[in-house]
Amino acid sequence: MRAIFATSIAAAIALVACAEPPPAVGEVTQAIVECNQATVGQPCDTDDDVCTREECQVVGPGVACVAIGAAADGTACGSDGVPCTLDACQAGACV
Predict the structure, then answer these.
(1) Is-contact 76 88, C-beta < 8 A?
(2) Which of 47, 41, 51, 33 is nearest to 93 (CA)?
(3) pLDDT tens, 18-30?
(4) List of the chain residues with pLDDT < 70
(5) Radius of gyration in angstroms for the set of CA atoms belonging to the chain, rounded to a whole number
(6) Chain-centre distance of CA 20, in angstroms?
(7) I need a surface site. Which of 1, 10, 14, 87 has the fewest CB within 10 A?
(8) 86 in helix, strand or coil?
(9) Per the domain annotation, does 62 fall within a domain?
(10) pLDDT given for residue 18 in this prediction
(11) pLDDT at position 9, please?
(12) Whole-prediction pTM
């Protein structure tokens, strides 16, 4: 009985250790996908690349999602499908 309990505890600890950390205070968790006049200045995302900062901006008569730079070095990202790896933006790329 103790062996089963110990195994269950070890499995639970492993799951918690691999869990995604919660977003930082003030961090945008869901970027706008479609820009319009009401979303000018808001963050957006057209390429699913967390290491690229994009923003809804007025372009001619319309509003478009425009790349405005790279995310800060050290911003958490997922460069692969492998869980529990520490990936971070470095010079605009997720490594």
Answers:
(1) yes
(2) 51
(3) 444 444 544 444 6
(4) 1-31, 81
(5) 19
(6) 10
(7) 1
(8) coil
(9) yes
(10) 45
(11) 46
(12) 0.54
Structure-token match 């995310």, residue found? 71
Question: Is the residue at 56 inside a domain?
Answer: yes
Domains: count for the chain: 1
Identify residue 44 by its one-letter amino acid code: C
Structural domain containing residue 47: 30-95
Please name the residue that has the structure tokens 């600890």. Answer: 13
What would the 3-class secondary structure string for 12-80 be? Answer: HHHHHHHCCCCCCCCCCCCCECCCCHHHCCCEECCCCCCCEEEEEEEECCEEEEEEEEECCCCCECCCC
Q: How many CB atoms lie within 10 A of CB 65?
A: 22
Q: Which amino acid does the sequence have at 28?
A: V
Retrieve residue 54's tokens.
């994009």
Does residue 1 lie within any of the structural domains? no
- What is the pLDDT, as a whole number, of residue 61? 95
In a domain, 19, yes or no: no
